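User: Please predict the structure of the protein below. I'd like the answer in structure-token form so I can feed it into my own downstream comparison script.

Assistant: Understood. Taking the following sequence of 156 residues as input:
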Amino acid sequence: MQQTGAGVECDRPEVIVDFIFRQGIFYVAVANVGAAPAHDIAVKFDKPFRGLGGEREISSLALFRRLPFLAPRKAIETLLDSSAAYFARREPTRVTAEVTWRDSERRTYQRKIVHDLAVYKDIAYIVQPSARAVSGGSAPGVRTGSSGIWEKKHGG
């Protein structure tokens, strides 16, 4: 099994798992950032984590258990949760993903990726008002990744 490093060969698959923070919402993606197809992709997380308001164990989705094929430079992402809800439930903030995959010649690759979601707690983002609030003259608001926790404590 080959460990992947900084020097990526241009003609092979390179698979990563990434947590995406977009306007206060977390997504989890499996991406082949390489130039060749990836096969038999599997992701093992060091600890389980839940999303969708705590209703679903995202770390156990079929997307992470076995993905038979992922085209070059393609990603598949799933909604995790709002950052405020994720942090309020005290879900893990330090998550390690171990990713394994094969290339077309059946060579196996492995990579460990450590994510620290706590860095998003202080990231500011703009919350667009709903259509109803817009008609009432409400302006966009600014929040941080953990602002839902602050709002519950302070009534904001």
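That's the full token string. The chain has four helices and twelve strands.
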